[in-house]
Specification:
Blueprint (H helix, E strand, L loop, with lengths): L4 E4 L11 E8 L5 E10 L4 E2 L4 E2 L10 H24 L5 H8 L9 H10 L8 H12 L5 H21 L10 H13 L2 E9 L2 E6 L3 H20 L25 H9 L9 H13 L3 H4 L7 E2 L2 E5 L6 E5 L2 H10 L9 H14 L5 E8 L2 E8 L3
Antiparallel strand pairs: 1-2, 2-3, 4-5, 6-7, 8-9, 9-10, 11-12
Helix pairs in contact: 1-2, 4-5, 5-7, 9-11, 9-12
Amino acid sequence: MLLPIKLICPKSKVRRDGTSIIFIQYCGKGNKKTLLNTEVAIPPNYWNRKFHRISAELSEKYGNAAELNQRLADLLRKAEDVISHAMKRKIRDVASFLKITFHPNLDTATLDEKARQVAALNPKSNLDLYFQIDDYIKCKTGKVVPGMLNIYRNMKDHLAAFQAYRKKPITFECFDYNFYESFVDFLTYEYVQRRRSQEVNGKREVIKGLKTATIGKTIKQLRIFLRDRMRRKIIAPIDLSDFKILDEDSDAVYLTWGEIGRIYQTDLSDAPHLIKFRDLFVLGCLTGLRFSDFATIRPEDIRRDMLQKKQGKADHWVVIPLRDAAEDILINRFNRHIPVVNNPDFNEYIKDVAKLAGICQPLKFSYKKGNKDIVIVRPKYA
């Protein structure tokens, strides 16, 4: 088989010592050229361009012409072996495989292992579910807000937990109605929440099962991920019509203006670590921004008595008049620089603040777990 490959010694790449490296040039699809370094270098005027070999007149200081030509012939044959192996294994991007695999000291006996290693890194050929989810997250990085990446990782975590529970690998061939039903049942009743526990008879116990809305979010993201892989022609079409997105109306828990004022005026001198969380919370109430937005306010976003902020999730600008208290927090307390806090800490510590502010009246709210309505009574600060 005649391959589009040859030896070249480009005059345009002469080095300081007057020599030029001899390359193996491969022309792939679209006439895209790949150059492989043979680690043999000579002055370009000793290169015979008609026969693609070193001239017999080569000065001895650069080596023996016959020996170097034999080495080049061996390397050319080695590169041809790599190309032939890639074609035999039906590797789509032969040029990339050649570039990654070829080396003058390559042992062609290891080509099978090399092909497996390259395939493992190629989204088109590695159909491991979790590799594909990681590739999906990588594709989305920089295109969505960081919070969305965490949602994708949660979906991956839920699938991995289900795989461990069922004691059987999850592959793309698994996704049918039986899988959907079993997965939803697992998330509803068996999934162990890692960061949460509850007190029962004086002991801390794990919490099993997720709320219907949380399960619905996972199913929604799973469907979007699978459709992305189908559009990219990585996997065969899957019928997802039975993958229903579960949802429920959530009970609204809100603060009155009076309660926000009590929180703002609470004396935290005995718990100074809570002050920044209290001020951030009140700032969020007074601006109507999400945590991901008010926690990333920059000095240049504050213009006179207005806050101009591009919202991350909605991806558009808002202009917010600053109330006196909001301006006091931003200018006088934070000196225009928002303290760095993470969302889990914020959610935890603001409950302590609300408790110290006396926001303690009991509230009853409910959520669904499977077909059951779970009713809970908790103090409002919680």
